[in-house]
Design brief:
Blueprint lengths: L1 E6 L5 H9 L3 E6 L4 E3 L4 E3 L2 H8 L4 E2 L7 H7 L6 E5 L7 H4 L6 E5 L11 H7 L4 E8 L9 E8 L6 H24 L32 H10 L6 E5 L2 E11 L12 E4 L2 E5 L5 E9 L5 E2 H8 L9
Parallel strand pairs: 1-2, 1-6, 2-5, 6-7
Antiparallel strand pairs: 3-4, 7-8, 8-9, 10-11, 11-14, 12-13, 13-14, 14-15
Helix pairs in contact: 1-6, 5-7
Length: 311
């Protein structure tokens, strides 16, 4: 089975690995251009490119799929299917029509729920207990194509986007190879999505990490996990950003009403007053320009005043 693979971040690497191990004929790997990173602005290759180069596969890195030169280049290929995993671009109609069996996308949610760029963070933020993976036929819409296969995945109480992504990327590789085999043998029937049940998982921005202390401690704790590692959750402390890496909810708090964001040092740790008189215990924090430390170390070093608050 001849394939073109489109993907960019680490999440896509297990699927590429699995296709290589299963001896699929990978004609081309399409990924994003290298990006500058670090203080020296050195170019860094996407994770998918690095794996493809290790395997000796040809790599193509267009900035825009709608350029005519890109269309001319890809139209030289005649794949049976195109596999798309976290590529980061909308696939144009001409590219959808290019493969004999179509473009197959691995999406990290149980569609039609959580369509969009960030399904894994949003299922954690919104308190879901179950998510999953979907292989689907790409069409002109945003994650609106017909469903091929789905697999459920439990969300653990301590899952972050990083840990859940790691598990789902491995499970997704297996689901994609199973899908391709069934599709090649004509043993799978695509089924339309129930569009009325659709929800959205919009792309995350840096400002999404700013903590709103009027939310309950449970809501904030889910954001801490869902926005880890990026963009992270943060508040202001004495004019600097304080990154909250880990936190947990204090059940059944007995404290009276306090100003939102008020800091308290108690036997159970460094606490913050949240909405609806709930309390969040900070576990690990990082003050802007400093290293990541325990909240207890931070409190000891900061010498908190009685009226100290997080903004």
């Amino acid at each position: 089975m001849n394939l073109i693979f489109c993907g960019t971040p680490e999440f896509a690497v297990p699927t590429l690995d699995r296709l290589i191990r299963e001896k699929f004929a990978l004609q081309l790997v399409v990924t994003n251009p290298d990006e500058s990173s670090g203080r020296g602005y050195d170019l860094k290759a996407p994770s998918v490119k690095r794996r493809a180069m290790e395997a000796g596969l040809p790599v193509f890195q267009p900035r825009r799929l709608r350029d005519e030169v890109v269309r001319a280049f890809l139209s030289q290929y005649h794949p049976d299917a195109m596999v798309v995993v976290a590529y980061g671009h909308l696939i144009p109609p001409w590219m959808i029509r290019l493969p004999r069996l179509g473009c197959i996308n691995l999406h990290a949610s149980l569609l039609p729920k959580y369509r969009g760029a960030a399904p894994i963070p949003w299922v954690i933020i919104r308190g879901e207990r179950l998510t999953g993976l979907t292989t689907m036929m790409i069409d002109a819409g945003l994650d609106t194509g017909d469903i091929l296969l789905q697999r459920e995945t439990a969300i653990e109480n301590d899952d972050t986007t990083e840990t859940l992504s790691a598990r789902m990327s491995v499970a997704g590789a297996e689901l994609m190879t199973e899908t391709l085999g069934l599709l090649d043998r004509g043993e799978i029937q695509p089924r339309p999505q129930e569009h009325a049940r659709a929800t959205l998982a919009p792309i995350l921005k840096k400002r999404d990490g700013r903590i709103d202390w009027s939310l309950t401690a449970r809501e904030i704790e889910r954001r801490v996990r869902g926005l880890c590692p990026w963009p992270g959750t943060y508040a202001s402390f004495r004019g600097k950003n304080l990154h909250i890496w880990k936190a947990h909810v204090i059940p059944n708090p007995t404290s009276g009403e306090r100003h939102l964001g008020a800091l308290m040092i108690e036997a159970s740790g460094l606490l913050v007053a949240c909405g609806e008189r709930t309390l969040l215990a900070l576990d690990e924090v990082q003050l802007e320009g400093r290293k990541r430390i325990s909240a207890r170390e931070f409190a000891n070093g900061a010498r908190l005043a009685a009226t100290e608050r997080l903004g």
